[in-house]
């Protein structure tokens, strides 16, 4: 806890058996109160590894539901555990858990309600091995989004994020995609709702065991980003209406996965 605020780290997992332990061991449990792992029908022994590590809350999907669906389950379960601060960390060790105290303090001290770990600030992306085509597409998509959405973020595509409870409770994130575009859509919702966002420079590592989408999936994701940005712009201009941008304050949707003890 920090300032009496409960901090929960959520791990959206898929075939993370080889990297989960290293990620988990670096989580700062002097401030982190609990960990939730949602396994999206991994074909390896991710769930058994999580049990061996003593992770208290393990939810297993028996069919692959998608990266976005995994995150939805992560957030629903963290909120049901009365988390005040929810930090999403990929269990593939692509992002360092050592920045968790920075993320948590920014929210706990009421400085910003949302924190993103940016691979683009500084030289972390290319230095960490990000493929050049992904770096270029990241910069192009970010520029496009900043113009249409009216922001000045360094990137919208990081998988290292922290949210205040109030943010997740006030947006209909359950309406976002179950696929990779979820990351982009939930940020679009947050920006539309008027929340301020902090960015922290974050080193990143690209290696064989780290999860990454292929070129075809990257192309589909890029088209989804363009579509999301255009929808956001049209919504902001009053040219269209989408339930994706309705600001709500509702009870937590029930979990749909199977809780493993």
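Q: What amino acid sequence fits the structure above?
A:
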């Amino acid at each position: 806890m920090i300032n009496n605020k409960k901090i929960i780290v959520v791990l959206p997992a898929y075939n993370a058996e080889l990297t989960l332990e290293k990620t988990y061991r670096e989580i700062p449990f002097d401030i982190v109160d609990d960990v939730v792992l949602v396994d999206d029908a991994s074909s390896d022994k991710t769930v058994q590894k999580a049990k061996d590590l003593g992770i208290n809350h393990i939810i297993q999907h028996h069919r692959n539901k998608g990266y976005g669906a995994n995150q939805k389950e992560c957030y629903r379960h963290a909120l049901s555990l009365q988390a005040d601060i929810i930090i999403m960390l990929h269990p593939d060790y692509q992002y360092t858990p050592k920045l968790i105290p920075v993320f948590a303090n920014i929210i706990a001290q009421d400085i910003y309600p949302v924190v993103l770990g940016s691979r683009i600030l500084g030289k972390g992306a290319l230095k960490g091995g990000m493929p050049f085509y992904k770096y270029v597409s990241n910069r192009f998509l970010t520029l496009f989004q900043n113009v249409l959405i009216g922001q000045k973020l360094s990137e919208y595509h990081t998988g290292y994020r922290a949210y205040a409870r109030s943010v997740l409770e006030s947006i209909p994130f359950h309406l976002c995609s179950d696929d990779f575009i979820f990351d982009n859509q939930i940020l679009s919702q947050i920006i539309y709702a008027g929340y301020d966002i902090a960015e922290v420079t974050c080193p990143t590592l690209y290696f064989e065991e780290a999860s990454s989408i292929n070129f075809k999936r990257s192309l589909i994701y890029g088209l989804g980003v363009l579509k999301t940005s255009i929808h956001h712009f049209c919504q902001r201009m009053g040219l269209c209406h989408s339930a994706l941008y309705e600001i709500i304050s509702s009870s937590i949707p029930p979990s749909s996965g199977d809780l493993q003890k």
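Q: And what stands out in the fold?
A: Residues 249-254 have pLDDT under 50 and may be disordered.
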